[in-house]
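Why this split exists: single-chain examples teach little about how molecules sit against one another. For that reason, every record in the complexes split bundles all components of an assembly together and asks for one structure covering all of them. Below is a record exactly as it appears in the raw files.
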Amino acid sequence: MTKKAYRGLFVCAVLGALLVRTVRLDLRPMHHDEANQALKFGDLLERGEYRYDPNDHHGPSLYYLTLPVARVLAGRSLAATNETMLRLVPALFGTGLLLLLLLFAGGLSAEARVSAAFLAAVSPVLTYYSRFYIQEILLVFFLAGLIAAGWKYLQTRSGWWAAAAGFAAGMMYATKETSVILFGALGAAAVIDRLLRPKTGSARPLSRTAVLLHLVIFLAAAFVPAWLLFTSFLKNPNGLADSVRAFGTYIHRAGEPGIHTQPWWYYIRTLVYVRFGHGPVWSEAFVVALAIAGSIFAFGSEPGKDGHPRLIRFLFFFTILSGAAYALIPYKTPWNVLPFYFGLVVLAGNGAGMLWRTSRFLVVKVLILAVMLPGLLNLVRQESRANFTDYANPTNPYVYAQTSPDFLKLVGAVEGIAAAHPEHERMLIKVVAPPDETWPLPWYLRRFTRVGYWTDIAQAGDLRDAPVVIVAAAFSEEAGRTLDGDYQSAFYGLRPEVVLSLYARQDLWDEYVRGRVAETPARPAR
Amino acid sequence: MKRALCSISIALVGLAMLLPAAGTGAQDQDKEILKIQLPKPMFVGTPKNIRTANLEPITGKPRGPFLVPAGTVLLSAGKPVTASDKEPVIGELSFVTDGKKSGEDGYYVELGPGLQWAQVDIGKSSPLAAIVVWHYHSQARVYRDVVVQVSDDKDFIAGVTTLYNNDHDNTSGLGIGKDKEYIETYEGKLVDAKGIKARYVRLYSAGNTSNDMNHYVEVEVYGLPAK
C-alpha cells in the first residue's frame, strides 16, 4: 500500500468514525446509568464539588474530562447541558481510539492499521458505547494508549514513552478501578511474551539503572493523574485510598452479581450470534473470524513488512486472558466486552491486512476485497441499526436496561403541564418510586427547582400539594385513591417491564392537552 | 446541634436582610416563603435488564367476579377477525379468537405502528355481556388510546356504540375518553358490554409504553346467543 493510499484511507476511517459517533447523539433516551453519571457531573460543574464514591460511579476521569466540554458549550449550569454535550466526550474518545492505532506502526502493517481503523469505525459495539455517557470507552481509549505507548517504548526505549504509558495507566485507573483486571491481563501477557521469545522487539538493550529510572518514570506518571483525580485535586485526601478500599465492594459485587449474573459464554454469544424473539440477527462474527486469522500470524513469522509478531502475540494473549477474566466473573453487562474487544479488533485488522498482503496480483486482491467487503458492509448495517433505529430496542444485544422512548412522552407531558402552571419550572413535583425506577427522571427534571424524591408514598406527605405526581406502578393504586377525581392519570413506560404513572392536576392537564391539540396539524379524514 | 445552630444563624441573617423591606405591605411583613428541603434522588447501580417476564397484577389482587345474565356464552371462539393492518408483522389474525391466551411468543398477532384496529365478527347480532381483551401480558406495559366499540355495521359508520375509551386527549380522533389506562396482566381487560346488541366488536389501540406496535393475544366476546 502506498503512503498516499494509507493516509487517505486512514483519514476516511477516522472521519467516518467521527460521523457515526457524533450524529444525533440526542436520539437515545438517557440510560439510568448515564443519568446517574450526569447528575454526579452536575455537582462538579455547578459547585466544583466532586467526591469519589467507593460504592458506585467508578472513577473521576469522566467528570473531569467532561468539564471543559460542558464549560465551553453550556457554562456552569447542568440545566444548560444536554445529552449531546455529555455524550460528545465518549464520542471523541471513541474516535481518538482510531488515532492511537497509528502508534502501532512497526508492529502492524499499514494495511493492518487501516483495516483495524475501519473495523473500529463501524463496529456496532464500539460505536454504540461511544455514544453512551459512561466510563467504558474512556477505559478502552486509555488501555489502547497504554499498549501503544508500551509498544513505542519497546521500540525506542525513550523515557517519554515510559511516561506516556504511565499516564495512560494512571488514567485507566482513574476511569475505572476495575482496570486492575486489565493490568493483570497485560502483565500476564507480557510474562508469556517474555517466556516465549525473550530477546526480540527491543530497539537497544538498556542498563539496569536506565530500566529502573524508566520504571520510576512510568510509576510516577501513573500515580500523579490517579492521585490528583481521586483526591479531587487534593480536596479529598482520602480519595485514592478509598479507590483501593472500593476493591472490596467490586469483588463482592462480582462474586454476588444478583440481577447481572450471566453464563461464562455471554460475551462470546453477544459478539458472535444473538437473536431475541422475532428480532434481527446480530453478529460481529466477521471481526472474530478475522481476529483468529490475525492471531495465527502471532506464531512462527518474523518481523518484516507484515508487522512484528511480538506485538500481535502480546495482543493475542492479552485478549485471551482479559476475555477469560471477564468471562469468569459472574457479573456481566454488555459494555464490559469492550476492553478485550479492542484486542479483537486490532487482531482482526491484522488478519485483514495479512489477507490483503498474501498476493501481489491485483486479481487476487480484488477477490479478497470481494470476500471481505460484505462483512464490512454487514457491520455498517448493524451499526446503523444499533445507533439510529434500534437504539432502545431490547432485541439489540447492546441495549441493556435502556430507558424506553415512551419515557420521553412523560417528560414532554411534565414540561407541557409546567408551561401551563403559573410557576412554570418552580412547580412542585413529587416523585415516589424505588431508586431503580427513579432514574433517569432526575436528569430530565434537572431544570425544575422543586422536585422531591421519595421511595415510600407514606413519607411523601399530602400528594395533593403537588400539581404533578409521578409514582411507580406499585404505588399507582394508592396514589389514585388520593388523587382520583381532580387529577388525570396516564401511564408511561420507563423500561421494559417498568411503568411509571403520572398524575397531573386536571385543570393543568386540560390546558396542556388543549395546547397540544392546537399545535397538532389536523388529521386527514379517515 | 452545630448544624441546627448554623441553620438558625443563617435564618436570622436572612431575616435581618429582609427588615429594610418591612412596612411595604402590612399583610406580608410577618410572612416569608417557606423553604422546604426536598429529598434528593437516591443513587443506585445499573438496574435489571428484562427481556421477558410473566406479569402478575401490579396490585396483586385478582379481579373480582363480574355478573352476567344467565345463559351467557362465549360468542367469539374461532370467529373471523379482520384488522386495519391486513398483513400483521407477527402472527395471524386468527390468533385473536383461537382460545389460546399464553403470553409467550407465538400466541399473539402484531399489528403495525400507530393507531390500528382489530375486529371480531361474531356472526349474528347478539346481546353482549362482556368483552375481554388480552393485548400482551408477558410484560408490564400499557396500550395507548384503547377504544372498544360495537356495531351491527361492519364498517363502523352507523350505529356505533363506544363501550370503553381511554384516549384522554383524542389522539385517535374517536372522541375524548374518560376511562382509565391500565397495565396489561394475564387477567386481560374486561369491558362491560351492558347488554348492547351488536354483531361486530372493534378494538383500537395506538402503540404501547414499550413500543409503537399493537398486539392481540386474544379477544373474547361474551353474550347471549342470538335468537
